[in-house]
# Entry
Amino acid sequence: MTTKQRAKLRSMANALEPVLHIGKDGITDNVSKQAWDALEARELIKVSVQKNAPDFARAMCDALCQRVHAEPVQVIGNKFVIYRQARKNSKIILDDL
# Structure
């Protein structure tokens, strides 16, 4: 992912609300499935890491991206944004940047 593509995704993510919350159990199979489904439907999602989570947001972002085959876009505080192009009916086109 180029810096221009990442900048476009960051600007799109500003208006998003977190659709997934990671709590004290960390990244479970259920959290991974919810993230997978949300990425398939929206392609770009914001995730919130709760204060009682076992690790920091940066580590959670890397672990979740690895499990759902996504790209990290940004990590700020206890929130992070990830992106994965949908397999069908992709809405966000990054090829033109």
Notes: The longest helix spans residues 29-42. The chain has a mean pLDDT of 92. The helical segments are 3-13, 29-42, 57-68. The two ends are 10 Å apart (CA to CA).
